[in-house]
């Protein structure tokens, strides 16, 4: 049994509030247990210089935490004057993951700016960001379709993410909260599509190693959890869901 | 009549959600019309090096906007690698204003970190930040008293802020929203105490000037609005309000 | 009586040396008591990107102190690699104040760069900068008129600034020197035009508050002092003064 | 068949020159095909502040490329004034991987600084860096043992890394060179120990996804390649190899 | 004949105003033709960390130009966020030159901060800075002796600097102004002591080369000019001059 | 006799490996005793903005050290976020020196990027960089001629550099290694052409001064050493040497 009473393969309660902010083309508040992230998708009518003239769009992401999202106040990256390595890893991951399910040619020369701002952190902020950002992005595309700026939904599959890990005494578990994460020997973030294909697998032994058998268990548990997350995304998207290609 | 139907001396709807985040000693979500700011107060058991050994506390503030708090996405200051002049002005103002009503000796050698993060902006974000941060700070002090880390509430008065301005065609108005703010000839931010004293008056002609008579009207309207804000703060604080000295 | 023998409403000795440097279009050395600031106005034949094509000019200011302008040597901002919040506040104030009395359309697509470099500081450096920068700017415009690059003097009023404050034991005083400034409970910087209108009022309680009555006294004393400063500016400008519109 | 004539599961020629530089405690030049990396291990007699007094050591890594290691000259990160996200990801990976096979308690309060400088790049620079840095680190520990600053070799297993991927037309291949890497649909970096356990698996679909079956093939091929790399490391280390615990 | 009517071996008019600023321990305004530099010497009662406990002092210099010291306004280094290579070269040169004539042991564990701020530039700003900074430093030492913080003048020789160069059509000339400097094929800065020894020789062909014979002429002309500069320094220092050791 | 057994006027063993890296247009590894520098020349088909349209080329240089090129590990400039003054001085010197022997008009609107990366340091890294960079640059020009992108070799003389100095007890010596350099009273870097003309002379007393006689000895010894370096460059360049103009 886990500290919060969950079964090893049980997700935390998830809730997504769509249209959370009034200015962004797409926005959600995603809550995964006590982890809360505001995800917005902003669409700009041009691409970065290195992509101009190719007739393709681009998706890029930024991630940040409020200073007091965490138990201890952390210093703002704007005060430090630089973005940490952890933040860079996460924002590169979010952008790459979303690009895997979007038809960039169908999007045309537009940039999608994803912003994931963690207002409260309790583990799994990067995977919650991906799951929420996907919904915010689809809502933004829908808004562009509504005002005639996009002809088709340029998304060919669902996309969600979760963490799995090997925690001392507890074994292989799904969707680690902060306490579990800090005790994990192996920590793996998995991003998958609605059709069950992998987009990203990042497994790390924390001053530890893991066997092929553990790897297999971890991947299966992730598959199970992501299936549930995708089902919930479909609920939240309602009518819009029908337009997801594939 | 104003665009949103308000009388010239009418505040926007205000709402403060206390205890908005679980980790911070004190936190609120303040909503003033469509302006929404998360204010947290974090308390650290030491003061900056230049104040050590004086037996006094310190209060400092940081202010930021989510990139998509605004109509157009604005670039993160962490990405720019520096904090803008506007942000610096605002965070200096918030810290200075709060220090005016706190007995820093009674606080002892502690630092209060105020974080104001605007999640949605519609004018008046700096004054909403002050009004909200005051409540978050009082809640944080109450929490320290509850756990025996502070003997008395080191606050000797209420504190709230609003904006007033001279808007073309409309004249002198209270609590400007974004549209009004961008059309104002004169823009004034006023911070006052519960007893009706001034803490800060910042009046600026925007490529314009103003007369002594206008100045007087502006100050009177601010006084009127801040009185209502303080009354609302008392409601929100409930029992805690009784401990505010003075 | 004040420490330096002045009456409460007495300015320090002011002296402006016009044409202080040979390269700038306009330049002065302004001395207000022991405060000495070199102010230059440089004119560039284009505006920043965000203003191009609007047929209007722009005025922007920078402010700095020599490291040993002060009692203790202060670290250069170029060594720190960033400009402090105080500096940013001051340079935004100077630029905003000057824009209030210039007809930016009559100026045309030009940028006026104001540089205020404090070579010796004894309180009131920001207000001395405004009073001096105004003269340097008018001299620069006159030079442009002399060489046929400008048809009319695009300035429609005089502009000067001073500080007022409430100092312990002494009460309300005009034009605070460094000692008075560091003891002031209330510190107010006021920028006014030659016609007696306000451009900027920034009043701050330093861990203190102030009443409406004090506010009124402060404003009256500022009005009195600025009248004298403007009269002196007219003397310094001589023939050029006749061209100031309004 | 692959463009350079290799079989799908064939590594490129590998060569490690031990003791490549005279000042570092441990150093190698590792060549994997045309990829050449100088790896050094420097040992400092203290740990970072956050670890002091815990009786444990620390390992941290830095990674860089000479500007002309690549086909096109890339701008130095020192000129840009900041380290890119890609560099940060790589240096975090190298440090984390090495820490997985070192007994930090046996090391004591020392910091191992790993520097990996790519002098010529042809794909796989991060995995070559790990394979080379491991040898440089062991040589540095040996040097400390020789001079009596360390009692036992604090390393409990071998460690090497390689890349595997899915390349269009060619299928699953081992040890991708630059051309293959730029054409890969799936790119996976795998770090394993001499005993065949995983330390890190980072698989990424490049605007693509991959199946569980492909995942399995990739992991098997990585296992095969890393076995050969570890065998070569043992050869290079000679006598020292006997001291690796485990 | 030179453009400004000087003989090839003729210095520009030099003037040094001692005690130019009230706060610094030592300060001068040095004018060499139209080049004007404020030099201050500030003395701090400690040395940088890398020198503590050695019983020796340190001398370090900073150099800057006001934005409008030059014909074209130059951007402040504080706005750029970094110090240029040219500035760094000059400040390293000034510090090194002064250290050559000071007995750092006799100074004791103190740091001398030299600040050279060019308020008007017309060539030779770095050599004027050295000549002026030397006087400011001696005045600062004298002040410390006056208040009993120093027993002897820790300076064992005079120090002055000038430029020499090879200018097209004109040949070898002394003390180049800006026009000559920009046309010079060879540019040489020379720092010498009162006894006629070299401290620093920096000769550069500007996309050109120079012969040994030209080198000799340049050095002789520099020697001649520096002799005159040292004589003038003695005049300015008056009684203090007698205390220079050696 | 010197510590390493050399005569006062004896160079260290020099070795240049041409075509050291595969991607750069020109590259060498230069070894001067234990000092080892990788020099590359990259050619870009455009010039910086300030030179466009003038029909001339540009040469610019960057210099860096691997962290463990030195006895003590030095912090990367990319980690510090800024380039030190020493590095800036060196890279400005390298670029300036090379420009003195290149006909920039014959080069046309191209930029030559020189990169000097010190992989092992034992004194004289800046002079080794110049001697090596010259060869890398000539090789790059030859490559452009081979592929028809340049008609003539735009180089009109050879160029090499060495250091000379006055070392306690030993006297005037040529080509100082690290130990000698750290004990030198006078340190002089000299850059000369194949025809024996000076390009740059930088002589510095290290908290010391030097006489005209010492200056002469130093220059003569430098002349002697550079003659040998140029002879070796000719050997390395082989057939290409015949194309150097002049």
Automatic annotation (TrEMBL), chains A, B, C, D, E, F:
Give the UniProt keywords, A-Z. Nucleotidyltransferase, RNA-binding, rRNA processing, Transferase, tRNA processing, tRNA-binding
Nucleotidyltransferase keyword on record: yes
Metal-binding keyword on record? no
GO-annotated biological processes: rRNA 3'-end processing; rRNA catabolic process; tRNA processing
Enzyme Commission code(s) on record: 2.7.7.56
Q: Which InterPro entries match?
A: ExoRNase_PH_dom1, ExoRNase_PH_dom2, ExoRNase_PH_dom2_sf, PNPase/RNase_PH_dom_sf, Ribosomal_Su5_D2-typ_SF, RNase_PH, RNase_PH_bac-type, RNase_PH_CS
What molecular function does GO assign, one term?
tRNA nucleotidyltransferase activity
The UniProt entry, under CDD domains, shows: RNase_PH_bact (cd11362)
Q: Which reaction does it catalyse?
A: tRNA(n+1) + phosphate = tRNA(n) + a ribonucleoside 5'-diphosphate
Q: Where does phosphate bind?
A: 86, 124-126
For the Exoribonuclease phosphorolytic domain, which residue ranges apply?
Answer: 10-140, 157-223
Assembly and interaction partners: Homohexameric ring arranged as a trimer of dimers.
Protein function: Phosphorolytic 3'-5' exoribonuclease that plays an important role in tRNA 3'-end maturation. Removes nucleotide residues following the 3'-CCA terminus of tRNAs; can also add nucleotides to the ends of RNA molecules by using nucleoside diphosphates as substrates, but this may not be physiologically important. Probably plays a role in initiation of 16S rRNA degradation (leading to ribosome degradation) during starvation.
| Name recorded for this polypeptide | Ribonuclease PH
Q: Which organism is it from?
A: Ectobacillus ponti
Instruction: Provide the organism lineage as a comma list.
Output: Bacteria, Bacillati, Bacillota, Bacilli, Bacillales
